[in-house]
């Protein structure tokens, strides 16, 4: 009896002694396995990123080979000429004349109408262009200049900032998201509307949108000061970043308030406010010193230019055939502002009460869509301000977000036709087919309705190209596109 007890006791002691050693070995092996898994995941992410970027660059090059806005269409040409002309003006004239009408700066011919950072950027590009070929930016004599070499320079100047400003924060977000799949990652990076507008039509939207994405990344990782500075920079590159201002302000405010430490909250908010004001002053200082800040503001906020431009999928354009008969021209700005705030308020209240990252993303999309649908002087290109934050929600709401992205592609097709780039429709169709074959909707009926609605949009695109012309209503197909796109975006 005693012997049995002794053996059992010894065995128990042996187990007690060995248990920590076994546990240590198992833990060591698990760590090694996890390390290998992490390395494998990183390597797979690296390969996926390289593959996507290779395809992306190929798309950008192919798109760049197509006509740009206003190509060989005097006297005003298009946005391509506007960007070139701003290089010419900022290079050859003193800073106090950049936004002021004069004999050497006719504001009716693509006068600068974006904030100071756009002007500084074009000044830098003008210096580079002058070093390569001074005829590209000669004052007045270079108007409407077009050549193969110059087109290559301009195209490269639009592609490079895409990889410097836009892609890094987007890639960072996706590689640090737990819900990321390779396909959602690819669909976010290969979103066609931005590629077609920047590399086809010709603009530099990737810069301000990239700084906005960097703002989101910094704010959600508690780098509030850096995030605030980046958003001020984005806002001072393109004033349309105001579309994102309300959710960003509410998010910063909600996360800065600590009821347990009110004094610390006040100090934190004051510090952020001081940084924002200082950044604004630094950017605007040359115009403040030369007394032309007011001239810049008058150019940046053109309240005399109407509610929308071209056939854009906004409320004002979609129902222009009715609204133009109503006598409310004098209250357009106030009505527009009221509608934007009314549609934005619910998401902003929700964000303030619960400033989570998901609520932040949702509020950014909701508010920017409200601005796009109801705000003053909307371009068709400004749909990007709603769709770019929605890229951050693909993993959360794949079906709804991809529907919005596909509708946004269709909504800019009239712009592509105007630029003699109707082949863009094949890029849009390809994106649609890949997105809907990859992310099936949870509801078969919802999936069917979404496919039907997008297909209807593509049918209107085909009619715009090949449908019978109507002398009485020459823009009937463009208006149909705007009306249908507005209706779908509103539902989204």
From TrEMBL:
Pathway: Protein modification; protein glycosylation. InterPro entries: Glyco_trans_ALG6/ALG8. Its main location: endoplasmic reticulum. GO terms for molecular function: dolichyl pyrophosphate Man9GlcNAc2 alpha-1,3-glucosyltransferase activity. Its EC number is 2.4.1.-. GO terms for cellular component: endoplasmic reticulum membrane. The keyword NAD does not apply. It is an enzyme of class 2 (transferase). The keyword Signal does not apply. PANTHER family: DOLICHYL GLYCOSYLTRANSFERASE, DOLICHYL PYROPHOSPHATE MAN9GLCNAC2 ALPHA-1,3-GLUCOSYLTRANSFERASE. Belongs to the ALG6/ALG8 glucosyltransferase family. This is Alpha-1,3-glucosyltransferase.
């Amino acid at each position: 009896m005693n012997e049995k007890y002794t053996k059992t006791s010894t065995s128990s002691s042996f187990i007690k002694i060995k248990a920590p050693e076994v546990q240590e070995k198992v833990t060591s092996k698990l760590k090694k396995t996890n390390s290998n898994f992490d390395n494998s995941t990183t390597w797979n992410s690296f390969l996926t990123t390289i593959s996507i970027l290779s395809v992306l660059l190929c798309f950008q090059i192919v798109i760049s080979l197509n006509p740009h806005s206003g190509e060989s269409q005097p006297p005003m040409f298009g946005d391509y000429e506007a960007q070139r002309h701003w290089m010419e003006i900022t290079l050859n004239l003193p800073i106090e004349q950049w936004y002021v009408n004069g004999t050497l700066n006719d504001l009716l011919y693509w006068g600068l109408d974006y904030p100071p950072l756009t002007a500084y950027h074009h000044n830098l590009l003008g210096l580079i262009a002058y070093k390569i070929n001074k005829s590209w930016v000669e004052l007045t004599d270079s108007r409407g200049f077009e050549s193969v070499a110059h087109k290559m320079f301009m195209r490269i100047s639009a592609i490079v900032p895409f990889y410097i400003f836009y892609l890094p924060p987007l890639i960072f977000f996706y590689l640090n998201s737990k819900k990321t799949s390779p396909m959602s990652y690819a669909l976010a990076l290969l979103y066609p509307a931005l590629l077609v507008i920047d590399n086809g039509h010709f603009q530099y939207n990737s810069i301000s949108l990239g700084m906005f994405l960097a703002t989101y990344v910094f704010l959600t990782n508690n780098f509030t000061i850096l995030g605030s500075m980046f958003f001020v920079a984005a806002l001072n590159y393109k004033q349309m970043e105001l579309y994102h201002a309300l959710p960003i302000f509410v998010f910063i405010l909600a996360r800065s308030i600590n009821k347990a430490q009110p004094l610390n909250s006040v100090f934190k908010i004051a510090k952020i406010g001081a940084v924002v004001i200082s950044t604004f002053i630094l950017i605007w200082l040359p115009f403040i010193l030369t007394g032309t800040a007011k001239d810049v503001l008058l150019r940046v906020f053109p309240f005399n230019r109407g509610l929308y431009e071209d056939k854009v999928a906004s409320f004002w354009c979609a129902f222009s055939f009715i609204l133009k008969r109503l006598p409310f021209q004098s209250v357009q700005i106030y009505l527009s502002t009221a509608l934007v705030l009314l549609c934005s308020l619910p998401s902003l209240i929700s964000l303030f009460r619960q400033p989570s990252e998901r609520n932040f993303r949702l509020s950014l999309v909701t508010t920017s869509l409200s601005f796009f649908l109801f705000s003053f002087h909307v371009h068709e290109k400004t749909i990007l301000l709603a769709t770019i934050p929605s890229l951050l929600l693909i993993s959360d709401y794949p079906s709804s977000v991809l529907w919005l992205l596909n509708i946004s592609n269709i909504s800019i097709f009239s712009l592509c036709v105007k630029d003699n780039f109707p082949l863009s429709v094949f890029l849009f169709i390809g994106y649609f087919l890949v997105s809907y074959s990859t992310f099936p909707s949870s509801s078969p009926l919802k999936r069917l309705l979404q496919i039907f609605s997008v297909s209807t949009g593509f049918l209107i695109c085909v009619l715009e190209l090949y449908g019978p012309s109507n002398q009485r209503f020459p823009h009937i197909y463009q208006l149909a596109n705007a009306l249908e796109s507005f209706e779908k975006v509103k539902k989204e």
